[in-house]
Structure to design on (346 residues):
């Protein structure tokens, strides 16, 4: 009985190891690895009557996976259009988090510690000792309703303006998958992870309307997400998440325990039961620069950023200097945007 009750801890510790055995991590890119994950054909349908978000591809092209032991858990691949994924990542890097430096009410782990940027600078600037970038110390940013980590609660009026595009994405995904009759996203927590960072098992249970699903978007480096049940004795499923993947926690899985035990050091990860790879050997030959673990899309993304836009973000840096900092930051960072509805609307 003790071993069963500790199953979450055992799973977390085993996957956190540098040389973790990945044979039980499900990777939707490999059909032999996707045991027990079902491709939901009934989700391949036309968009809902409402106009879909401009960030998303037609829902008929999405691949949506479910698991019979975890009802309400959905894994969505291919939901973003190429331009939509690029636009979302650029806003995450340049808009959502730097609003904090412009005097807005956006909150972050840095602002909670009283760490702010000098005027006309951003988190892409260096710290006082000139040895690190402030962005390297950023761990989370919240938009819309803010969670009070001291009192562990949401409060009426304790919020900032919620970005329309995030509300659009959350609404369109939920409506397209028919997992809720109505949803009004009003909050998002954006996490910044680096290899070695983890997030312990927890539940998101303090929103005022728990009938509305969580929409979780993965960007950047691959990571492992573990999702269990509503008790600590329920064994978890382990999923490999890559750039652009979406996880839905709805219905019976809305209050499921979940965790991130590992962020990989490379974009190129393969894991399946018929060809087991350790987490310290993650290279593949697909989509990467010669002699590098960095995927080609990163250079294309950085080169495509507008110089005029970059110069407005941080006046202490030239556009080329900021591009170079972003180019070095992306290969070592995983991002997660968790969109939710906090308020219970009539």
């Amino acid at each position: 009985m003790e071993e069963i009750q500790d199953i979450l801890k055992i799973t977390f510790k085993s996957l956190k190891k540098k040389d973790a055995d990945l044979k039980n991590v499900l990777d939707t890119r490999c059909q032999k690895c996707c045991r027990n994950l079902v491709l939901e054909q009934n989700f391949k349908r036309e968009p809902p009557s409402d106009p879909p978000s401009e960030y998303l591809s037609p829902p008929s092209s999405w691949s949506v996976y479910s698991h019979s032991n975890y009802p309400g858990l959905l894994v969505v691949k291919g939901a973003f259009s190429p331009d939509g994924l690029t636009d979302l990542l650029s806003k995450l890097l340049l808009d959502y988090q730097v609003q904090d430096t412009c005097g807005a009410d956006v909150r972050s782990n840095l602002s909670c510690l009283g760490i702010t940027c000098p005027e006309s600078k951003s988190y892409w600037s260096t710290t006082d000792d000139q040895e690190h970038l402030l962005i390297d110390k950023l761990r989370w940013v919240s938009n819309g309703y803010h969670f009070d980590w001291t009192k562990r609660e949401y409060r009426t009026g304790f919020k900032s303006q919620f970005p329309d595009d995030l509300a659009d994405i959350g609404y369109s995904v939920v409506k397209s998958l028919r997992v809720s009759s109505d949803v009004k996203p009003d909050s998002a927590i954006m996490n910044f992870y680096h290899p070695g960072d983890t997030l312990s098992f927890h539940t998101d249970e303090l929103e005022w309307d728990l009938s509305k699903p969580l929409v979780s978007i993965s960007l950047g480096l691959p990571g492992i997400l573990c999702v269990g049940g509503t008790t600590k004795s329920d064994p978890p499923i382990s999923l490999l998440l890559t750039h652009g993947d979406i996880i839905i926690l709805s219905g019976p899985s809305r209050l499921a325990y979940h965790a991130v035990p590992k962020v990989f050091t490379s974009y190129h990860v393969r894991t399946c039961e018929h060809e087991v790879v350790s987490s310290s050997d993650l290279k593949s030959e697909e989509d990467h620069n010669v002699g590098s673990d960095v995927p080609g899309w990163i250079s294309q993304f950085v080169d495509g950023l507008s110089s005029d836009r970059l110069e407005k973000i941080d006046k202490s840096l030239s556009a080329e200097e900021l591009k170079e900092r972003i180019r070095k930051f992306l290969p070592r960072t995983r991002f997660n945007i968790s969109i939710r509805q906090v308020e219970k609307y009539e």
User: Anything to note?
Assistant: The chain has eight helices and 15 strands. The radius of gyration is 20 Å. The longest strand covers residues 140-148.
